[in-house]
Amino acid sequence: MICRKDYKDPVVTICKHYFCSDCALQRYKKTARCYACTTDTKGFFKFAKNLLSRITILREKKKKHSELSESDHEDQHHSCSHSPVQCKGEQSDKGDFLNKSVEAGWVPTNKVQLPKSSEPNWAKPEAPEYCDSDEESD
């Protein structure tokens, strides 16, 4: 059974997967295959000396990045000079407008005119008189 918690005395397998040493040894008692990819580990585990320090550094970077992102978002929110505008034909109380229009049986019919597809000029034959010819061919 693999605990999936923070690593305690981490080890790395020959297939480069990391586990707690206790979890790796318990797994090895059942089978020599890696829990992650089923490669035969042959019971060979190395202590992952630098893993915990690398994880700590990554967590600090992530925390710092999230704090910066939050402060940037707050700064942008406070410094933004744009304000919402009312669109043409839009009622100020949207909920009331929708309720009245549904009661009246009105259904919006906004149709969009899509461009008609056309074949490019290069798709046309250069000499159309040869295409529909009734002449005998060899």
From TrEMBL:
UniProt-recorded Gene Ontology molecular function terms: zinc ion binding
PROSITE patterns reported for this sequence: ZF_RING_1
Ranges for domain RING-type: 2-37
Domain of life: Eukaryota
Region (Disordered): 63-96, 109-138
Alphabetically ordered keywords of this record: Metal-binding, Zinc, Zinc-finger
GO annotations of cellular component type: U2-type spliceosomal complex
UniProt-listed Gene3D superfamilies: Zinc/RING finger domain, C3HC4 (zinc finger)
A Pfam short name: zf-C3HC4_2
Bias (Acidic residues) ranges: 129-138
A biological process from GO: snoRNA splicing
Compositionally biased region (Polar residues): 110-120
Compositional bias ranges of the Basic and acidic residues kind: 66-78
Cross-referenced PANTHER family: RING FINGER PROTEIN 113B, ZINC FINGER PROTEIN 183
Protein name: RNA-splicing factor, variant 4
